[in-house]
Amino acid sequence: MFSPLVFGTAPPLYFNDHILGCLVILVAVTAMAEVARPARFLNVLLGAWIAASPFVLQDATSLGTAGDVAAGLFLIGLSLPRGNRSEEHYGSWDRLIV
């Protein structure tokens, strides 16, 4: 969300970064619930768009492009599954908890 201020991007990339920042935070907080962990895969899609958006939208600076690509790839890496499976049991829903 702060990348437009740091990298000096202009609209429409400016607005894109702000809106996607809010969506990433929303999805990440939702995915903190154990039963909603699959929601983190939405952040993979959002990260891919963040990385691609400087090439699709206008008025991207070279520093802004590098920052968005790095942030998008970082977000994708953090959203992929790792660690132990669920500690709790939810009956027949256990197979759906990733």
The structural class is: mainly alpha
Poorly predicted spans: none
Radius of gyration, in Å, reads: 16 Å
Number of strands: 0
The SSE string, one letter per element, is HHHH
DSSP helical segment count: 4
Distance between the termini: 28 Å
Global outline: elongated
Commentary on this structure:
The protein has helices at residues 3-7, 13-30, 40-56, 62-79. It is an all-alpha fold and 98 residues long. Helix 2 runs antiparallel to helix 3 and helix 3 packs antiparallel against helix 4 (62-79).
Quick structural overview:
Helix content is 59%, strand content 0%.
Task: Give the tags.
mainly alpha; 0% strand; 4 helices
Secondary structure layout:
Elements: H1 3-7, H2 13-30, H3 40-56, H4 62-79
Helix pairs in contact: 2-3, 3-4
